[in-house]
Specification:
Length: 353
């Protein structure tokens, strides 16, 4: 055996959803937005001066931070940006979860959390969701070294009311509470305003879902200046130039078009609500999702079979082969036409199985 192998850091990596090649397929497996980015983003992209790539980008991504500060009505020193919310979350684990006590996150949740915890050697506990897949608030009012959960939760789509989030933030003055709001713009109420009052609360959001820019890799966190300073210090100890120039320019353009944002997120919510009805008629049950996906289980046909049948039709959804959730499919809300194609297939398939 090569002797250096003894000193290699061993990790079990996160497995992202499949990104199949080609365009003759319906992709409802990674919660991307089915609509293009705002028109101003595409215009700025066409007009971009490539000669500017010669220089390093602004390490503070000031134009993007300024646009976000205006949109969320907070001072600029309350915003941290990164390469997708994965980068922001990873940085937040490294910065804030530095205690000997275990951090807490739900047993069924974003599967990257245990990966970062293992990578950074952070002890953790995973309180169980209740039988209806709800986060049990009381589980997060016990001793801990930090707290993180998505709201709405993934892959269930269930939203925790803001009063419960406030209770968790207020009940944990000794730890940082991170609310991962990747899916908050599809009908939930954000905890951003609570960060005005709680200095231990960090809210993380992304451009990947509600702003149709998963490929640009932009995420951000909002909290009190001291939290943001701590995050920035860790970032500058690792990689100063995280966001590239196009991401900074195009991200700022996206934030400025509030009308397009409202229109497209509204469309997704409308298509989601119609999809819930169709799924119920087809014999599926599901938690009442407030995200851009539905986590559905069929009353007769196993999820894995439906998943494979859909894949043969080039319709991709997500299946998690894990205890407690292996009876479910996570279906991203696509366009009306994409959902129609999904339902047309399901109607025939389920009749014959
Ligand atoms: N949080 C949750 C709950 C997610 O589902 C995702 C998407 N995989 C992310 C964060 C990360 O998204 P991104 O890095 O694209 O911002």
């Amino acid at each position: 055996m090569s002797r250096w192998k003894k000193w290699v850091r061993r990790v079990v990596p996160y497995v992202p959803g499949e990104q199949p090649a080609g365009t003759d397929l319906i992709k409802l497996n990674t919660n991307e937005n089915p609509y293009p980015p705002a028109p101003g983003v595409l215009k700025a992209l066409r007009e971009m001066d490539g000669a500017a790539f010669r220089k390093y980008p602004d390490p503070a991504a000031s134009c993007l931070v300024k646009a976000l500060a205006e949109r969320y009505e907070v001072d600029e020193d309350r915003i941290f940006v990164g390469v997708g919310s994965d980068d922001v979350l990873g940085m937040a684990f490294l910065t804030f979860f530095h205690s000997d006590k275990p951090i807490l996150f739900p047993d069924i949740s974003y599967s990257f959390y245990p990966v970062w915890a293992d990578l950074f050697r952070i002890p953790y506990r995973t309180p169980k969701l209740d039988p209806n897949f709800r986060i049990v608030k009381e589980d997060y009012l016990t001793e801990n070294g930090g707290i993180i959960f998505p709201n709405p939760n993934a892959p269930t789509g269930l939203l925790m009311p803001l009063v419960d989030i406030e209770e968790i933030a207020a009940g944990n003055p000794d730890s940082v509470v991170i609310v991962d709001e990747a899916y908050i713009d599809f009908g939930g109420e954000s905890a951003v305003r609570l960060t005005d009052r709680y200095d231990n609360l960090l809210v993380v959001q992304t451009f990947s879902k509600s702003r149709s820019m998963a490929g640009m890799r932009i995420g951000y966190a909002i909290g009190q200046p001291e939290l943001i300073k701590a995050l920035s210090d860790v970032k500058y100890s690792y990689n100063s130039y995280t966001l590239n120039l196009p991401a900074q320019i195009l991200g700022a353009e996206a934030v400025r078009d509030e009308e397009y944002f409202r229109k497209t997120t509204g469309q997704i919510v409308a298509v989601r609500e119609a999809a819930k009805q169709r799924l119920a008629e087809l014999g599926f049950s599901f938690p009442d999702s407030m995200a851009n996906f539905i986590f559905a289980s069929h009353d007769r046909v196993p999820a894995k079979e439906i998943f494979e049948a859909l894949k043969r039709e080039r319709i991709y959804v997500r299946y998690f082969n894990q205890p407690r959730i292996d009876g479910y499919l996570r279906i991203t809300v696509g366009t009306e036409q994409e959902m129609e194609a999904l339902f047309r297939f399901l109607e025939i398939y389920l009749k014959n199985h």
